[in-house]
Amino acid sequence: ELLPKNVNHSWIERVFGKCGNVVYISIPHYKSTGDPKGFAFVEFETKEQAAKAIEFLNNPPEEAPRKPGIFPKTVKNKPIPGLSVS
C-alpha cells in the first residue's frame, strides 16, 4: 500500500528484492486513467522470504521516518531510509 504514483516493476523488485527473490509482481491500474492504484502484489520464491518482507515492513528500524505498515516516501534513485535487511 501507499506506493509512489510512478511505481513500476523494477522499483518494486529493487525494494522488495532486499527481502528475498521476487518471482512475480502485479501492479493494478485504474482503467479510466491507466494510473497505478497505489498498491501491488509481490510474490516471493519461498514463504520464509515473504515472511521476512512482512516482518520488515511491519517492524521498521527505529530510525526509519515512518509508521509501521506505511511505506516510506522515496525520491528517484535515492536510498530508502532504514531499508537495510541483513
UniProtKB/TrEMBL annotation:
This is La ribonucleoprotein domain family, member 7. CDD domains: RRM1_LARP7. PANTHER family: HETEROGENEOUS NUCLEAR RIBONUCLEOPROTEIN. The keyword RNA-binding applies. InterPro entries: LARP7_RRM1, Nucleotide-bd_a/b_plait_sf, RBD_domain_sf, RRM_dom. One of its GO terms (molecular function) is RNA binding. Keywords: Ribonucleoprotein, RNA-binding. It comes from the Eukaryota. Residues 1-59 form the RRM domain. GO terms for cellular component: ribonucleoprotein complex. The keyword RNA-binding applies. Residues 59-86 are annotated as: Disordered.
